[in-house]
Automatic annotation (TrEMBL), chain A:
Its EC number is 2.5.1.58, 2.5.1.59. Belongs to the protein prenyltransferase subunit alpha family. One of its GO terms (cellular component) is protein farnesyltransferase complex. Keywords: Magnesium, Prenyltransferase, Repeat, Transferase. It holds the Pfam family PPTA. Its cofactor is Mg(2+). GO terms for molecular function: CAAX-protein geranylgeranyltransferase activity; protein farnesyltransferase activity. It is an enzyme of class 2 (transferase). It comes from Maudiozyma exigua. This is Protein farnesyltransferase/geranylgeranyltransferase type-1 subunit alpha.
UniProtKB/TrEMBL annotation, chain B:
It holds the Pfam family Prenyltrans. The lineage of its organism: Eukaryota, Fungi, Dikarya, Ascomycota, Saccharomycotina. GO terms for cellular component: CAAX-protein geranylgeranyltransferase complex. GO terms for molecular function: CAAX-protein geranylgeranyltransferase activity; metal ion binding. Residues 14-351 form the Prenyltransferase alpha-alpha toroid domain. It comes from Maudiozyma exigua (Yeast). Belongs to the protein prenyltransferase subunit beta family. This is Prenyltransferase alpha-alpha toroid domain-containing protein. Its cofactor is Zn(2+). Coiled coil: none annotated.
Length: 309, 369
């Protein structure tokens, strides 16, 4: 545990701010602990002391100031150094995983308490790539699950998961993983986007995937995430006459309740040749009626269609 | 020319001014976490005050010396680098603490303070450019925001993404880079552009894991614009990106009425505002990120986008006329960041704001930006 007594021999490098000096902007009335911890850490960073007590101080400093970029850098250097020491002490080939696991435990705890901080994820990536050749994907699952339980659209966590797949060269579970989130909330755009970016790494049957997304559209037609996904899938599958005809009939069912359905229907009509430029122009004009806030956009599309663009 | 009715009554304007100025004075300990990024706080407040027509240069003349003191030179082996640190707490002997975001915020703050002398005599463009240069990654052209404090190389524990790419470009633009050769003196433009384009999602916007995000999209488009590289996007791609942006405006009208409570992020009060991603709630800052992005692709904004509902959402839903300031969304407390971007969005729609640099047009023009 952090104990200020351990740093008696460190000469503090005090914060320079003067609260009474009106030339300074944003004079913060620091609490005593902040002043004390920062003064010590500034000195220790400056001297580049890489030690166990420095790590303890650093934990406290980061808790007080999660955005302190140099503190994260300092932390990494300390861990790197302690790891080297440990390996030298125990001899080559010694597995210091327990030390890295301890660091990841600390990071997990910190992450749960600071969900919006983004430095944690790149710090984590650095630990895994630079210092931890024995890391496993499964060690990473619980923290990602917990974070996504709390906010199923947390951008950093989804990004990190994608990074993990590439790092551990493991893509096998991703389709099932996203399905869990889509089942819970069919509007979860992170889950849909992530799923789309994983398609090329999976061995899923595209016809089956098509049925999957059509079912979800049937469930709620006015959902942009699913129509986007369908559009992307269509691009991968190629626009065969049969498929275009199927999607033409499918989207037609929802044109009264969904602007996305209508737009998709217009595209299929054009692709299949069942509608000419004038017809498509009329369709876009109609979308302007059911999506009035974007009327200028749809009228522009209408004009383009009319001019054969 | 017909004058629009002013955005704010004198009474509300004064409330905003007071709200903003408070963030520059004495702050309670709850603001401690901003201590290492003070340039951001100062910039958000100054940018907003300047956009509201306040005379920053005069009002804060006495703070100029302090502002400049955050611009520092640091030595790595034989090379001299310069830039801004996050604040006095980041001034640590023998430690490289320059930061890309704080450098942009610091430079633009001095622009807002009309400190011509700084740009003519104090600023060392060469060493600042070298700092920016060191933040670029060789492997993919992207930027990190800080250097390793001892080694002076791009930090391996920092993230690299479109935000820092944009910031790097905006810094170089602010210190005078205009042509491709100007930029190439410091950075690898080709690999940077390649990285930016690699972040474009299948659905038109830009983002990190295939999910487009309005903030990243604004960074990507602003960077391409400042680099004069927008035409790296084909007209078809531009059209798709434009549609993705236009689709981010939230509405309760037409077929959207049928959207039921099954989408927990759908809220009638969001009408007119912008969301940052598909199926998310409207949020003040995304009005800026989206409107800026749209205006980069399509400068004749008002023939593309209904700006009245955006204005209405900002002024009647996220503006706090009691405390001053703007909040992220309806019924939340105002905060500095959303106040800055709420005002920026309003001024951008009025045509008096340089969105790519996020400062008022008059301030940019004075410095040939
Ligand atoms: Zn926001």
């Amino acid at each position: 545990m952090f104990d200020i007594e351990d740093y008696k021999d460190v000469e503090p490098l005090p914060l320079t701010q003067d609260v009474t000096n009106e030339e300074e902007l944003c004079r913060i009335m620091y609490c005593d602990e902040y002043k004390q911890v920062m003064a010590l850490m500034r000195r220790m960073i400056s001297k580049d002391e890489l030690s166990v007590r420095a790590l303890r101080l650093n934990s406290r400093a980061i808790e007080l100031s999660p955005a302190f970029y140099t503190a994260w850098n300092y932390r990494f250097r300390i861990i790197e150094h302690l790891l080297k020491e440990e390996t030298q002490l125990q001899g080559e080939g010694h597995d210091a995983s327990y030390m890295l696991n301890k660091e990841l435990d600390w990071l997990d705890e910190f992450t749960l308490n600071n969900p919006k901080n983004y430095q944690i994820w790149s710090y984590r990536q650095a630990l895994l790539t630079q210092l931890y050749p024995h890391a496993t994907f499964s060690r990473e699952h619980p923290i990602m699950d917990l974070m996504l339980d709390d906010d199923s659209k947390n951008y950093h966590v989804w990004s990190y998961r994608k990074w993990c797949c590439a790092h551990f060269k493991t893509y096998g579970q991703e389709m099932a993983f996203t399905e869990r989130f889509i089942k819970r909330d069919v509007y979860n755009n992170s889950a849909w986007s992530y799923r789309f970016s994983m398609l090329k790494h999976s061995d899923v049957d595209l016809d089956q995937e098509l049925q999957f997304v059509l079912d979800k559209i049937e469930y709620v037609p006015q959902n942009i995430s699913t129509w986007n996904y369908l559009g992307g899938l269509l691009q991968m599958m190629g626009t065969s006459d049969k498929l275009v005809e199927q999607l033409l009939q499918f989207s037609k069912k929802y044109i009264d309740e969904s602007a996305f359905a209508y737009e998709f229907y217009a595209r299929m009509s054009k692709l299949s040749g069942t509608a000419n430029g004038k017809d498509v122009a009329q369709m876009y004009s109609h979308i302007a009626d059911i999506d009035p806030i974007r009327d200028q956009w749809w009228n522009r599309k209408s004009l383009q269609a009319d001019q054969g663009k | 020319m017909q004058r629009d009715t002013p955005l704010f009554t004198e009474e509300v304007l004064q409330k905003h001014v007071k709200f903003l100025k408070r963030h520059l004075l004495l702050l309670p300990a709850s603001h401690q976490s901003t201590d290492v990024n003070l340039m951001a706080v100062v910039f958000y407040a100054f940018e907003s005050l300047a956009a509201l027509g306040q005379d920053i240069a005069t009002d804060y003349q006495s703070n100029l010396k302090w502002m400049r003191s955050n611009y520092v030179s640091q030595k790595v082996t034989d090379e001299e680098l310069s830039g801004f640190i996050g604040g006095p707490t980041m001034n640590i002997p023998d430690t490289i603490t320059l930061s890309l975001p704080n450098t942009l915020f610091g430079l633009l703050t001095l622009v807002l303070m009309r400190d011509m002398e700084f740009f003519d005599k104090v600023l060392n463009k060469k060493t600042l450019g070298k700092f920016v240069s060191r933040c670029q990654l060789k492997e993919n052209g992207a930027f990190v925001s800080v250097l390793d404090y001892k080694l002076g190389k791009a930090s391996i524990i920092d993230s690299h993404d479109l935000r820092f790419c944009y910031i790097a470009v905006a810094i170089l633009y602010t210190i005078g880079c205009r042509t491709e050769d100007d930029f190439k003196e410091y950075i690898d433009v080709d690999s940077l552009v390649e990285f930016i384009l690699s972040q474009r999602s299948a659905f038109g916007g830009f983002g990190a894991f295939g999910e487009a995000h309005a903030g990243y999209t604004s960074c990507a488009l602003s960077a391409l614009k400042l680099l004069n590289k927008l035409d790296e996007l084909s007209s078809l791609e531009k059209e798709k990106t434009l549609q993705w942006l236009i689709d981010r405006q939230v509405t309760r009208e037409g077929c959207w009425e049928k959207q039921d409570i099954s989408n927990e992020y759908y809220n009638e009060d969001d009408h007119g505002g912008f969301q940052g991603r598909e199926n998310k709630s409207a949020d003040t800052c995304y009005a800026f990120w989206c409107v800026n992005s749209i205006s980069i692709l399509y400068p004749n904004l008002k023939t593309m986008l209904q700006t009245e509902p955006v204005k209405d959402h900002l002024l009647n839903r996220t503006q706090n006329t009691l405390t001053g300031g703007f909040s992220k969304c309806y019924k939340e407390d105002a905060d500095l960041y959303h106040t800055c971007l709420g005002i920026a969005a309003l001024k951008l729609m009025e045509g008096s704001f340089n969105g790519a640099l996020c400062i008022p047009t008059h301030a940019a023009k004075e410095f040939d930006l």
